[in-house]
Amino acid sequence: MSLERVPLKLKLSPVEALTQLSDEPWPVLLESARFEKTRGRYSYLTADPVKTWKLDQAEFGSDPFAEIRLLSAQYSRPAEAGLPPFCSGFLGLLSYELGHAFEKLPTVPRDEFTTPAMAVGLYDWSLCWDHLTNETFLIRDHSLQSASKSDTESRWQRLLQKLKNGNASIEQFPTPSPRTIEPTSAERERFLNSAQRVLEYIRAGDIYQANLSRKIEYEFDGSALDLYRQIRILNPAPFAAYFQPVDDFAVVSASPEQFLQVNNRQVCTRPIKGTRPRWAAGDLDLYQGLALQASEKDRAENTMIVDLLRNDISRVCKTGSVKVPRWCELETFAKVHHLVSEVTGELQDDADIWDLFAATFPGGSITGAPKIRAMQIISELEQSTRGAYCGSLFAADLSGSLQSSLLIRTLTWKPGQVQVPVGGGIVADSVPEIEFSETVHKSAGLIASPMNHLTTEA
Q1: Of 215, 273, 371, 442, which is the active-site residue?
Q2: Short-list 235, 340, 228, 215, CA closest to 278
Q3: Which residue is catalytic, options 31, 257, 301, 438?
Q4: Which of 45, 60, 86, 348 is the S-S candidate for 395 at Cβ 3.0 to 4.6 Å?
Q5: Catalytic annotation on 149?
Q6: Domain membership of residue 396 as a residue range
């Protein structure tokens, strides 16, 4: 077989290994910083792809996956027993604005944090952590290694040596202190006015729901890696991620939300709708969760998005296969409680994961219902690109499996500054002031400390 599995005895955590390899081209870490038995079993790190694609802006009617689709078919291989869902293949970023390729939407101004519509690499190796068995191993895909054997071996030895150097001396990163950045009165007023406008659209019958966001920006004098190391401590998440395809921007995520998963052609998406902040006291925190579960408003909001996603994946799934095995279940994270549902289906025989992305992107839980009209209203009210926020980071294995997150709780880094968008769904009985408070709760644990307030101990 083309895959070679190499067990490693290195005692490096995913973030420690990323520290050693972050200077390689296009590093990407998909980390289960919050391990659960049913989810978050694996973390993946890779870098130095054999081929890359970068699309600055998407055009309606184009197929952004055309070349990737051809290479997927060319290098397709069966899944091997005993290996993780991702071994080698395509990893990268689909920004929110990639949706312009699939739907005709208004053009909005780009801001300085705007990321490419798509940035994807084809990777011939991965470093994998199995958090269930506590194993770490490297996987090489020889079918993708187009360089000469000597060059390939030299590259491989370079990567291994970096990891071994890290094993000899691991830096201890200090625990950062949570911060808050108080919104200005102008920011608050702008959000409240936009929320009120969404309510007017709902009352006029244009939409049932729209996801409205606002952006927090602050100075940060550390690297993108410093930012990731802080965020994963402040807000551990099952879909934590780091991606830096170029020197002057990176995406750092503490997302709790799975977007699309495909294994053996079985599709699963897990939308989050409904949020309450965590409380420190045990009984009060329990009450918060129970109150969320009992909230008719939050359950209705979740149900609307479930119906939307059922419709989206039905476009590429077999008739009768789309189900809702879980609906409005309570899940608790570091800073908030959420209501989470699950929609599943089976891909049609003539459909692939790229067709699935085209049918569902961007995700329904961060747009609204009806989806296209909600996206038009979002463009009108937010008046700037979302970039990585509400897009997806994904890993598509050459066996046809797919793991992807929805980029909420996500920061975009550039030298000296960070942007943190936060938002929530507006429905008929939403109260703008409460929705604004929810964005404040969601930003808790995402505002990292300036590096000059921290010292690194050897």
Answers
A1: 273
A2: 235
A3: 257
A4: 86
A5: no
A6: 3-168+176-453
